[in-house]
Amino acid sequence: MPSTTINPTRMELTRLKGRLKTAQRGHKLLKDKRDELMKQFMDVVRENRALRQRVEEGLLQAHRAFTVAAALMSPEMLEQALLYPKQHVELEMTFQNVMSVNVPHYEFHTQSQDAGEVYPYGFAQTSGELDDAVNALSQVMQDMLRLAEAEKASQLLAQEIERTRRRVNALEYVKIPQMEENIHYISMKLDENERANTIRLMKVKDLLLKENIEARRRQTAQALRAFCEHSDAARPT
Amino acid sequence: MYRIGVIGDRDSVLGFQALGLEVCPADSAEAARQALHRMAKEGFAILYLTEQLAAQLGPELALYQEELTPAIILIPGKEGSLGIGMANVKNAVERAVGADIL
Fold first, then answer.
1. What is the span of the domain harbouring residue B53?
2. Total of domains in chain B
3. Which of A82, A128, A132, A206 could form a disulfide with A65 if both were Cys (CB 3.0 to 4.6 A apart)?
4. CA B1 to each of CA A90, A112, B16, B36, B38: distance values in angstroms, whole numbers, following the listed order
């Protein structure tokens, strides 16, 4: 039995058949979308993992160098040395469309291209370890940026894949079977109606026939009787 | 034009200042939360956040996960990596695929 009450009419049947066709088409498209998204996602996530490993390693190294530098210099000196940066980073963000998911793409330029420009302090009053630390950080910066890109992309893609998978499953296991059941129910009901109609017609025809036969029989009997009486009267006595 | 921000304890983030990123030192979870919301509103495209602080900001981070900006990226602080960043990558895979297949 269908879960909701539906009208077993021909119009409803046509409507449902149309909907089923659309649902099946949508299901196929969504399934393709899910598969393609999954493919893209696996690429992104692999890159993400590799980058994260690299960045974490690089940052650990930089922190180590910083700790040494902080031990050699007074905190005030350290802060003063780094307080006013020479470099300035500018970030451009564009969007890439991956299977209708907008994924950010970052482009960054530093104000000056000279690698030596990252040190915002004079070398006289700072220790060499600080140079190492800043250098290590600037090395890892490019990877950090790509990590941001990959990580955001993987988050957004994961979300979209989850949503698409839910839709695919809802169509496949709930919507389409339900519609098929309803269509089956309506067509059965309509067939049943048609059979009932035929039977009713046959019955009516039987009834009419019986009446006709009855009437004809009465007529014959009457005619026979009349004939008998007539012949009796005509016979010479 | 977008900006890049770094939130974390003073010692972990000081170095980023030299690179020209905008640094916001935060010593407590509360300060980090405020900085996070403020910077998210101010048009930062990328926010780097130390894992030590991120561990205490779970729900706030989930809020921004679905947004296009800012991308909140966890980095290890000076105490080293807590493995939250890697766990997040795993989570994304599990969410998408249904199982951890990497």
1. 3-97
2. 1
3. A132
4. 7, 17, 19, 19, 17
CATH fold of A22-174: Helix Hairpins (1.10.287)
Q: For residue A112, what are the CA distances in angstroms to A86, A108, A117, B46?
A: 9, 12, 7, 21
In this complex, how many residue pairs, one in chain A and one in chain B, have their CB atoms less than 8 Å apart? Answer: 133
Q: Which of B23, B72, B35, B68 is nearest to B51 (CA)?
A: B72
| pLDDT at residue B14, as a whole number | 79
Residue B79 belongs to domain with CATH number:
3.40.50.10580
Q: Which amino acid is at B85?
A: G
pLDDT for residue A2: 53
Question: Whose structure tokens read 């005509």?
Answer: A234
Split chain A (237 residues) into runs of 10 and give each run's mean pLDDT.
74 94 95 92 91 89 82 75 72 84 81 64 71 80 87 89 92 94 93 96 96 95 92 77
In a domain, B102, yes or no: no
A227 shares contact with chain B (CB less than 8 Å):
no
Cα–Cα distance, B4 to A43 (Å, whole number): 26
Question: How do the domains of chain A map onto residue ranges?
Answer: 22-174
Q: Which of B14, B69, B76 sits opposite A59 (nearest CB)?
A: B76
Contact B93, B100 (CB under 8 A): yes
